[in-house]
Amino acid sequence: MKLLTGVLLLAASTLYAAGEQNKVFPFPYDQHDFPNGLRLITIPTDAQNIVALYIVVQTGSRNEVEPGKTGFAHLFEHMMFRGTKLFPATKYEGIMKQAGASSNAYTSDDLTVYHAAFAKADLDQIMLMEADRFQNLEYTEATIRTESLAVLGEYNKNSASPEVKLDEVISGTAFEKHTYKHTTMGYLKDVQDMPNQFAYSKQFFDRYYRPEFTTIIVAGDANPEKIREMVARHFSQWKRGSFQPAIPAEPAQTAPREAKVAWPSPTLPYVAVAFKSPAYSDTEKDSAALDLIADLAFAENADLYQRLVVNEQKVDRLDGSIANHVDPNLFAVTARVKKPADLESVRESILSTLNGFKDNLISAEKLDAVKKNKRYSFALRLDDPDRVAGIAARFVALKRTPDTINKRYELYSAVTPEDIRAAARKYFVESGRTIVTLTSGGAN
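RE: above sequence
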């Protein structure tokens, strides 16, 4: 892991000196809030002449609250590269190419992120271009129609994957009212209607591409004071908005749910077992305990993985996780099974394994080994500015500060075998369960 150089102590903002050895995120960082609601997080590392710039917009498919208007957060991941009067798309791309910038974007349930890595000498120019497109994005109705077709093409490409379809059906079955019911891509009928939604697209951009929803992260060879001045110069005219989405609360699930997907072409069968789970937290143990259960039960060295994948060879893929989300979501286990005849036994093995955590206390030694591995694996990923900023961005989308990373890992350390059992008993209940199977031609 790379060590840090010194960091300026800045009175006008808050410096988080998290460089002690016991901190899993060991980087001191500077966090500064501007009057318009924009937040800047600067993370100096020992990288020479390289910076990573991540702009996190706390807007994803979760924010798509109107019926018939899904997929727009993802659409704007595309639209933001269409250019402005000052920097048309070709000029923007040319400057980024000349800077040798690796630039991209992605959208998820709770966030949209724009990111690039390049030489620090180009930061001021690129920050100017970012400020311009966030404040002055310009496009026509014809542009929306063109980009909507690209999004539809991406939807059609993704829909050729049985795993994508499985995820879509899990979300659609497990949720009734919350916007997590639809995936980031949105519903097909809404994507097909996007070319007709020019006026709404303008409204969506006006609502969510605002400073109070946005956090800028700069990691690498970065001087916090200079970058704060740079961001103030380019983003100070960006006006705060007033819109707050009314995200519908998901009603309590009262009975198990099940769905079966008949895949039209040959594929190995899948089974997914999901349970309702809590929102991400860095203060309450439940989500941390469930995350540890996923490692205990479904990592490559876990008993079930060794039995189903290695020894019996009934399964060629076994994954279990609780995704970090702003609102309550799902603890989900997915298995790709080699033979349809083994679907039921694999499903029962998954359920039996999860129920085992309700009935038995995991040993403190085994739990401690998983905690240490999780911590070590995380630390190994912090090896360059792009990864540092990218990891911080995921957590910033949840709590808007990297401080939550160390808090979360402190929470892992505090989880006991009794906490594991309590979380399993609370969440692995039949009334909160959703099971989806996918097979070729409708085989059960």
